[in-house]
Structures
1.
Amino acid sequence: MVTEPDGSVGSTAIQAGLTRPGPATPHLVRLALVGLLLLVPIWGRDHAARLPWLYLVMLAFAVAFFAAPLARAMAIRWRVLDMPAARKVHEVATPLLGGAAVYCGFAVTVLTSFDFSLQLKGVAVGATLVVAIGILDDLTDLPASLKLVGHIGAAAAAIAYGVVLNVTPIWIPGFVWINVLLTILWFVTVTNAVQFLDGMDGLAAGLGVIAGVFFSIAALQTDQRYLMYLSAALVGACLGFMPYNFRPGRAQIFLGDSGATFIGFTLAGLAVMGEWAEGDPIIALLTPSLILGVPLFDIGFVGVTRVVTGKVHSLHEWLAYTGRDHIHHRFEQLGLTRKQSVLLIFFLASTLGLSAILLKDATPREAVLILVQAACILAIVAVLEGVGRWRPRP
């Protein structure tokens, strides 16, 4: 949040056309939609018809769609604005706190439609901590190291409720603690990978939609309807935010750190909660990795590039470093518009997601071919990013 020394919003914010909320009628219509969906007794109908998935998407969408303008109004009132800067792509001050709307859409849907399992409690507690840290960051610009500690604490909270990866063979000494450390690494990596991609309108929320859809499909393949419905809640919450962010012209509100990290943490939790391939830990690990392939590739590629090029020399520098070197920045430097860059990333994420759901019933030979294909796709992206790195910024 940036304000003038006297506490008023600067001229940039005025030029952005930030205004108080308009007539109350649209808000009442959105509220009526939420109330109507909450009253629909659809959850008790035949689950085989798959109507509950659509209902959960609609409910989460309606709540987030209603909450986003309220979050925008609060951000304007409290002057929680994302100001333009050299490393950012937007040109006008834009309200933050959109993540609160996404969180509300997900939380209301889960609270009204789910019986809480122990693991869901863990993911919910951890995600709530991440959202709180993100809102504090939007308000006060927390140090990167402090945010990292908070994310580790959120992961530890989820682990305390049994949300733990099971990828280390039991014959390895200390396999339990290795699994715990890998789980913390997974949560922190995915959470920050999605947050790093929150640099263009609609990108982080859109990736949340795509990953949520493919987690739903993978959960249906493995007969995990609970996770399929949980993914639906995230899909709907992200979709409800999109009309205010990924739209013609400029965005009305940004996710902020709270929204992007919440989406990342929840996706990481869905991955850990699921059993993606019975008896085959490699496929079980690769399925969520492919679904989240774009953000995981980006954080890995950018991290290695920064070290190799000498931009960072320590963990502290890596945490504090900010720059325009992520996949969406490179695509823009290649000459694509911002909308084109976002859509291209959506197609890449969807392609890797399709590869993930093909792994379920693939033979060993087919699985290798699928992974080689995914590697080729990411190699093409790496080449394009290398070209974009040497081109001047548009």
2.
Amino acid sequence: MSDEARELTRTTIYRRLRADILSCVLRPGSQIQERQLCEHFSVSKSPIRDALLKLEEQNLIEILPRKGYRVKPISLADARELYEMRLILERECVGRLVDVAPDETLRSLDVYRVAPGAHVELADWIEYNRSFHGALADGSGNTRLARTTREVIEQFDRFTYTSVAQSGPQGRERFGAEHVLLIDAIQKRDKRQALAVARDHVEASRRRVLDSLENPTIVP
């Protein structure tokens, strides 16, 4: 197998496992065995371990000594803490974006005005959502702030899945409309309005997710 083919295999396995975790096909708290994954994907342990280590870095799985791996459980305490961090970091990014970002950067946000339609896979919608909030972080002009904010945002994929899956197609339209409101305020350099919209957007997401996490069929 060529180096290119090996890299493609690693990437495919990682994406498949990540999608299964985000969509709760691999349920929170469920154990994962390397041997079973090797048999499932018909590959050696090397690409499986690479994918699992990458997923561990993203806080989606955890290593169980002498037992294998486990999909990281979703806890209400983790969700609350992450939302507190996200609210602090994202509002700071939005404020700096309004204050210091060049007009070209603000105009570049227009690509997020049209969210993926209800017909697309949830994983694609989640990728769009992550990309949008990552762009807000990158526009802050502070590389350390942007990196820290992105790290927090990436941990929200399962929360986003839970929220979007519960709300259905109409919910996706509403989330997309909230993004547009935020883009409008940022491009007008209306800092007060932009911070208010960012706060309301995060708070609405927090309420939806915490309500969803009360469901024992999602969180063991």
